[in-house]
Amino acid sequence: MSEREVVLITGARKGIGRHLAEHFVRKGALVEGCSRELPDWELENYTHHQADVRDEGQIKAMFASIRSRHGRLDVAINNAGVASMNHSLLMPMDTVDRILDINFRGTFLVCREAAKLMQARRYGRIINLGSVAAPMRIEGEAVYAASKSAILTFTQILAHELGSFGITCNVVAPTPIETDLIRSVPSDKLQRLTDNLAIKRAGVLEDVAHVVDFFAHPASDYITGQVIYLGGA
Amino acid sequence: MRQEEILDLVLSSLNEALAGNGVSAELVIDEATPLIGRGSVLDSLGLVQLVVEVEQRLQDHRGLSVTVADDRAMSQRNSPFRTVSSLAAYVHMLVEEQCARV
Fold first, then answer.
1. What is the per-residue pLDDT across B63-90, written as a single tens digit (0 to 9) for each?
2. Which one, of A213, A224, A179, lies nearest residue A16 by Cα?
3. N or C: which end of chain B has fewer CB within 10 A?
């Protein structure tokens, strides 16, 4: 079994996922990441799995690999997600399916498999990505926000189901951050959103990493079922 | 995979789950050991651990991806989780079905 902390990050190819992968490698962890496409970068102590969070077979194979190589998983960060801004009256069902499949169903699948591995050592930290889009009721984000609300409710109940296994489950809910996810959102809309935050600035990747560090810390063993909204949303 | 092999796999998984729950290693378990209800050696979370252990051993040792607690298992009049032998028989059936599909 690996002596070092093992961290899994979904959607690790770019954006928040890539930042967290680099962050945890710098901290000395062995990091496993996944995404549908291969990244155009490499990192020592980082292993990438080409796996789609919607595909049960691919995700189970990834966990079998983690189990056989490390024998443990300390932290699982469900970052993989997609958004599609559109008025509900114009939203195609294919897009609805895709958002719910990746954001919620994918999170559920990875949580389930992560907890199976974590429970053997009676230790684990599951950190799911929410969004301020849910509490801020952002028009055009109804389906995306609903998928994130589903993650929140799921995480809070999962926290109860896994508490006796020594596994904590929490949500970090970022504001819009300069990544591909929000590239198509008009700048005036982003400005209005920022204006409604308690702290009136755009979020940065370090803001997310800071909260993830807090939830992932071994001393955070009495903190579960919680959600932290960045920016005071 | 022969039924006896699966029975051994279930028994060793049960030992693992019991050890994880601090149950004395001196407890004697066999085919008739109840897993649910009166006289059960596991609580509900222990049963979850047992099922996870069985699934992981099938994956690790045989490369079989089997979901033991499927809808069929949950809806049967006689639960496959009654005893070690009923669970082994159910897992054997799932494995046979999966092998037949390949």
1. 898 999 988 998 888 899 999 999 999 9
2. A179
3. C
